[in-house]
Amino acid sequence: MRKKSFLSYEAKIILLITGILLLIFLPLPFYDNFIKIKDDFLFYYDEYIAHYPIWLQVVPFILPIIIYLLVKIIKKNRSEYTEDTFYNIKWTWNWNKDNITNLHCYCPDCNEEIYYDDTTSNFTLKVSKLDFICDKCEKVVGSIANENKKFNSSTIINKEIERQVFRKLAENKNLAK
Q1: Which residues contact 55 (CB under 8 A, 6 or more apart)?
Q2: 106 close to 114: Cβ distance less than 8 angstroms
Q3: How far is CA 92 from the centre of its chain?
Q4: How many whole angstroms separate alpha carbon 41 and alpha carbon 32?
Q5: 37, burial (CB in 10 Å: exposed 0-12, middle 13-18, buried 19+)
């Protein structure tokens, strides 16, 4: 559903034209104020900044742009990693800042979403496991050993994804050296 605007487009245009006409015909000293601000800026520049080399004067304007671009590149590299295979199961997810969201598992054969079942394995083994079952293939696609009952499958896979991300970052650091 679209959010309703406070004013229609026609009303905004009429207000803009009225504002421009008021600025033109009202005796306001805009130009005088602009000249005063310009003179103050030039005085400040001559007094405090002009004696530095030009490259040092430009650095404060370029440095934030470089930092912004680096952050975007790093964020893009992390957000491109949204699919991998763990325990013979295809996993997909999204990134929300540094957190993993919308974690889903799929059958590697038919690409259907699968579900897990832990009822059969708890009674027969000392170490429980989570079996991932595909309804379309009618088979157990993969299993994850789970010694800690407090962890669910998404927590285990989140840890695997984070381990992979840190491993890739370490590899990139080693390549940069």
Answers
A1: none
A2: yes
A3: 16
A4: 14
A5: exposed
Query: Which residue ranges make up each domain of the chain?
Result: 52-81, 82-176
Q: How far is CA 1 from CA 5, 6, 10, 38, 55, in A?
A: 12, 16, 22, 47, 51
CA-to-CA distance for 132 and 135, rounded, in angstroms? 10
**Which pLDDT belongs to residue 145?**
73
Cα separation, 144 vs 128, whole angstroms = 9
Q: Are 86 and 160 in contact (CB under 8 A)?
A: yes
Per-10-residue mean pLDDT for the chain, 177 residues long? Answer: 66 90 76 85 92 91 90 67 82 79 86 74 58 84 70 73 76 59
> According to the model, what pLDDT value does residue 47 have?
93
Q: How far apart are CA 90 and CA 130, in angstroms?
A: 15
> How would DSSP label each residue in 101-153?
EEEEEE-TTT--B-EEE-TTHHHH-SSEEEEEEETTTTEEEEEEEE--TT--H
The span from the CA of 67 to the CA of 57, in Å, is 17
> What pLDDT is stored for residue 42 in this prediction?
93
